[in-house]
Design brief:
Blueprint (H helix, E strand, L loop, with lengths): L9 H45 L2 H19 L2 H4 L1 H4 L2 H21 L6 H4 L3 H24 L3 H18 L6 H4 L2 H40 L6
Amino acid sequence: MDGSPWGYPGVVLEEIAAQLHQDLEARNAAREETLQRSRLLIRHAAQTIQALHRGDFQRAHALLQEARTLARELTQNLARRFPDLYYAGYTQDALKEYVEANVVYHLFTEGTYPTPAELGVPSATYVRGLAEAVGELRRKCLDLLRHNNAPQAEQLLEHMDAIYSLLVTMDYPDALTGGLRRLTDLARSLIERTRGELTLSRRLYALQKVIEQAQASSNAPSQET
């Protein structure tokens, strides 16, 4: 077709194909690396929480330091170069687990909270990690109750209440918060169950003391009048 404006497409498409391959190869490599680091970060976060529940704070601190390095490596240049990978579910889920481990560690050791800026995570990821920390606080409460340490359990329950009070103010669409509403409802359920178990434990403890006092009185030798 003489005079056609279309010309021969082969050369142009070959150039475009080369650019596409270069970009997609880089993205694929970044994706594989991100998946690997995400799995490692989740594992370190879980091991940190396990060490905390065992009372091995030295190991928990060491694991958390390794997790912090992984989190930095995971996000370094990723948000700028490949924002779609940075905000992908698997990346943010790993960072959420990292937030949870940090929150639990700071509460168990210092009674404080790390900030989103300190952890280098998006706000939505931070609040989801904060919400999931409620479950670990409940687990610690139950451990304390089994050892008749109701006062410390009550202090943790106060932290659980404070976290829930923060969560209910995050009234934004789930598309923005990543399903925070469901996590908030779950946190409320866990808090109410923990409060009921703490109340029951206190009543049983008081009843046990009354019984022990009554037995001590009945076993005491009577004085001759």
